[in-house]
Write a structure and sequence with these properties.
The chain is an alpha+beta fold. The chain has a single domain (6-68), classed as Maf protein (Alpha-Beta Complex). Helices cover 30% and strands 32% of the residues. The protein contains 1 helix and 3 strands. The protein has one helix at 48-68, and strands at 6-11, 26-33, 36-43. A 3-stranded antiparallel beta sheet has the order 1-2-3, covered by helices on one side. Strand 2 (26-33) and strand 3 (36-43) form a beta hairpin. The longest helix is centred in the C-terminal third of the chain and has 21 residues, at 48-68.
Length: 69
Amino acid sequence: MKTDLAVSITGIAGPDGGTADKPVGLVYLAVASERGVDVRRMQIPGNRARVRKVATLNAFDLARRELLR
């Protein structure tokens, strides 16, 4: 795709779908660039809307930090 930066989010936002190993609010973020891949694991408390919002804001922040390097 000839991109300089890729951002990915996956996880369980809820309210259902969580398990003991993968509870609701568990989110993984990743940013990939020519420098490599930065992966973050987060456990975000709250309802579905909050989990999605906080995950998105953190993904944007990871991308911003990578672009500033």
